[in-house]
Structures are given as structure tokens and as C-alpha cells.
User: What shape does this take?
Amino acid sequence: FMQGSEEGGEGGVRIGGGRGDPIPFTPDDSCDDDIFEGANPDLRSPQLPHLSQDDWGCERKPAKVPILVYENSYLRASIAPQWGGKIWALYDKVNKREMLYNNEAHQPANIGALKAWTAGGCEWNWSPGIIGHSAFSESPVFAAEIDTELGPALRVYEFDRYNNTVWQVDMVLKGPTLWVHPKVSNPTENDVRGYWWTCVAHTITGDSRVVTPATSAVQTSIPTNEAVTVAKSAWPVFATFIKNESFCGVRPSSSPYSYKGADNSYYGNIPGHVDIFVRIPKPRTPYIAHSSPDGYSIVHGHELNGTKFFTWGTNPMANFWMDFLAGGKPGGGDYAELQVGPAPTQMQTFSLPKGSQKEWTEFFRGFTGNKAKLMDDNDYSEATGEIERHLPSSQETESMHAALSKISAIPVKQHNIIHNGSSWGALHMALVAKQGGDVGFADAEAFEISGLLFPFVGRDEREVRPWRELLSGGAFSKRSLSASPLSFMTRREWAELLSASKNVTWLRALHLGVHFAERGDTEKAMQLFSESIRLSPSAQAYRSLAVLSSDSSYATGNYTLAWRLAKGAAFEGADRLRSALASEIARFLNGRAASAGTPAEQKEWLERIHNLLLDVKSAPNAGEILANDNVLAAQTRARVQLSGELDAAIATLSSQCFPTYGSERAELIELWYDAHYRKAVMEEKAAGSSVDELSPVEKHRIRRNNAIPANIGCPYPDNTCTSYQRPGLH
Assistant: This one.
């Protein structure tokens, strides 16, 4: 309930309700005025009305997936509409090179706004001022083939449930250039704040380079007391990870090297993960290019205010996460992200007034340039000059922008659609039609928003069906009342419709409780969840009471009641409910055990974990639940700190992937060492020693002799972690 963390990344269970604590963007005063304009007051990513995408594996088995291929004699684009419409790969047929990072794995990590996100390709990130990889990253979107004066164009588009806006990207291949035209539309009666970044991943080596006509940058590497900040630096030479960006050290008279500082246009010069937002002065043409040591370059041109690149850096944490996202292949997926957007940084938003649209044109072009100029480390202007020799002319750019603006206005018809997205746009328009008195809304199977067609889609019929019932009949059907709800609404107009319904049911009260909980009205929400239980007890209502309570014992009691109802349930969606609930309870209990103030309190929480695991074993889908990351981690803690099954705990920690764990990998590392400490004490006692506690030196030796397993790696995103070494690579 309104407590999502910045860019996913965490899996903890917070109780107590309310709206939590904002995470504001606070630029350093070294930045110029434009970095303060539109500064986001709260960078958290609330989940609702979307569902969290927080359960996946790392089976890493070969598979075939359907894609859309769009090509001419120069380029071949492979688009994945099932994953946000991203361009998974862009191949240069002339130079026989991949222009983007063509990831061989679809391996999610806990990094996106809804948690799941995969690396590679070119993705489109639209959201209402929410930072990061968007809610669409791992979800299907619409794709349509549009006939135009430039030939066939491919459009991907979707409806945004956060604020009832729509976004689209039109793609056109012309000669050796891929032109793309993003457009966001606000058809509502409310002004909204917008966030867009086109995120493009490129395969890198330490000596490949970013080339852009910037003269300064704002970047995130400086130490600070602020939650999220940036400071101004020169570009491309500046010191990272210290406040004094001009620091360059001393220059011995015998040194053949220039000690002017690190040239951070080379990826290999950046030690840790960092976002660098370069500032391109007018009237320079904005672009950002990736150049390989052999001279092959990909330039991404645009007309926007924001230009950025992200690198994981050159350290064990960086290597672990790039290898993980590449499907566990050591060295198989080193990449950086080169991005563009309307605002100067990703921590700022732009205005999208009611009834307005914002559109622009971008392009991608690959070529083999003069490698001596592109790699010149004495004069950066040699590199920018070489890139600019290969840019489209201003006349061509202006002409393509005009043509693409015209194309973006071509409406989508049913015959144009070649891949279906979600039903949420159609559902929203059915609500609008009902509010407007259109008596035919209930029979309509598709609606138009800003020239984009949104039909109802069979794939998500179960999620949408209860809301269509509410629209057409003012009540939920018996089928919906006997199933586990799979979708939730948080906007005012749906709450009004629920309140107006005369059919007083547990599901109506549950949905109204969710609405008020999301707005921070914890007291009203808890009243509604209690009403829902009085009408018909449900696991969802008890779980919601648990989350909203600020008392751990009260939360535990409600979690227990929720699990009792879910365990034996046989209704539609019961397995999914059991898995999600057991995962959350395990995470809750594990967190309480880890933070317990006394040994007695810790033992109490560990025994609750033990009892949960015993109960889960007799659940209908026990195998699925017991393989869940949060359940495995809780089981491991109980084995280490309660039952003393140390070898079993060590075996789990050295073999399981824990695919949904990001920052929580720090807990796995702590458990790994704790298991080895306890094992050493047991072995000493077996040999006749009476020692109960190891000395600091003994613990040091144990850590040195029991390296963190490669499958645990490093927490996200900890630049200080040194526990991961690429197997066979140095």
C-alpha cells in the first residue's frame, strides 16, 4: 500500500499502513538551476493498481519465443511486444554487427518499478513521474502495423493505469537508419507529471567509449547524506565517488601519463555503478554514441533535454549482476545503458497538461568510423567530430520528424493490430462511456483513446471480468465472489462506483479497503477489511489487516488466520494466493527473526518460521511454495539459528539461485558466515573444547577459508562487495 521502493530492489514486508516516508530528489548546489526544476518530491514506485511481478526463477533452459521482425536491406529489428515492446535486438546487416546488447537470456532481476526487469535491447519507459524501468517492462503491449507514405511502420502502444494516459512509439526503417517517434497523450481533465526515458543497452568492453557533445555532467557517485542526489562535474574528465570532482592526484616527473584525471568516457575508468547525465549545450545537436575500439559506433540522436549513460562499473558487484542478467554466463553480458529523455535527469519530471500530447523523434545509426579519432584520449573533440560526420543532415532530421509526426496521428484499426496488450484501456473507456450516459458501453468490445484502439483481450479476462460486471450490473457475480481477486483499482472513479453498489459483499468491502489503504487512511481501510471478514472471511482481508497493523503480534495473528483460509482453499486462483501469501509471511517472519532484540525473541520468531514450514508441506502446491526465495531464506535461517542443521543450510546457500533477491543478498551472506561460525564451534566442542564464541581472528580465518558462493554473489547495488569472482576470468 503506497510503500514501493525506488526502482524495485527490495522485498521486505513493512507493516503499519500510512503513506510511508517520501524519498525526495535533492540535487547538490553545484548543479545549475535546470536540475532543480521539476525535482521529484518522492521517488518511490507504488505498485498498485499494477500487481507486483515478484516471483520468477532461473531455470535457464533454451526456449523459443515469438518476436516481431521488422527489417530492410540494411537493418533487422527484433521486437518483443510481450515484454514492453522493447527492441530486443537490432542487427546491422551491412557491417554484420549487433547494434544493441542482444541478451541471450531472459533472466529477470529485482530492479524494475514492479520488481521484475531484464537487461538488453531498447526499452520505452513511460510513467507518471515514477523513476526507473517502467510498469510495462515485463508486460505485453499492443503492436500494430501501419501503412504510411514511408512504407510500413511498426507501432507499439499501451494504456497507463496509473493516470489514464497513453503512450506509443512509431518505428520506421529508412536506409541504414532506424527512426523512432515516441508520443505520450493525456486525454484526461487533469494535468499530470510525466517521466520518459528511452533506455538502450550496448555490449561494452573496458576500452569502449561513450561519445557525446557534452561539456558537463551531473552524476550520482558522490557521497552524501541525501537519499538521492547528483553533483555537477566536468565532462569527460572528472573524479568519481568523491565530492572534489577535479581531484587528479600528483604527477611524477618521470611519468609518461597525463594526470589530468580519469577520462570517464571510457567504461573501464569507472569503478562503481553510476548514472551520468551529460549536459549538451545549445546549439549542439544532441546525441549519445557508443564506440568500440575497432571504430564501430552506434549513434542515438534525439531532440530532447536529457542524455544519460549508466554503467555497473568495474568491480565484483558489477560483474555479478551483469553475469546474472546474462543467465549466469560469466563475462557473457557486459553492458551499459545509453538513454535519452525530456527532463535533464531521471529524478525530474516534465509537465503534461490536460488534453495535451508530447512527441519527439529519435534515430539509431551504426557505422565503422576512424578508430584513431574515436579513441583519441588527448582530444575528445576528435571523437565527437568523427561521430558528427555520420549524423543525418539537419534537413533529413527535420523532414523525418515532420513525416513521423504525421504518421503518429494515423489511427489504429482492428486489422492493424498484430499483438494484443492489456484490456485496461478498454475497461477505462467503458467506464467513461457509462459516466457519459452511453447505454451501449456494455456491449462494446473495443474503444479508441487518442487514435489508439484498445480492445478487450482474452488473456486477462479473469482480471478484468469483475470490473465489467460492476460496470454493467452494479455488482460482482457469484463467480467473482467465489474466486481470488486478481486485480485492484485505486482511482477515485472506481471507488465511487463501488460505493454506489447496493450489493454489499465481502469483495466490495475488500476493494474499498484497498482504495483507502492506498491513500493512507489506515483506520478507514481496517474498518472495511474487518467488514469484509464479517461478511465472508477471506485470506486477502486478514492479510491486509496484518500489513496495516503496527503491532507485530497482531500482524502475526492475522497472517495465521489468512494462511489457514488459504491453505485448504479450492477456489479459482487458490494456488497463486497460497504461493504469494506464504512468500510474504516467510519474509515477514524472517525479517522479525533477523532484527529481534533478544535471543528469546529471536527463538520465538524462528519457531514461527519452523511451524509455517511444517504447515506448508501439506498444502496442495507445497513444492512450488517451498522453492520460493523468501521461503528458502526463512528455512535457512531457522536451520542455522534454531535447529542446527548447518550442512543443509550451507548446501542451500551454495546451490540456490535466489533469483528475486537484490539487496537482500546481504542477508544470505550473513547467514553463510553464521552457519560456518556455528559449525566451527560445534566441531571444537566435539573435540573437547568448551568455547561458545569464536574470537575475531578465528572468524576472520573462517571468512577467508569459506568464500561466498558465486550463486549468492553481491547485494544490489553494493560497490564495496568483493565476494564475487568470475569463474575462470581475472
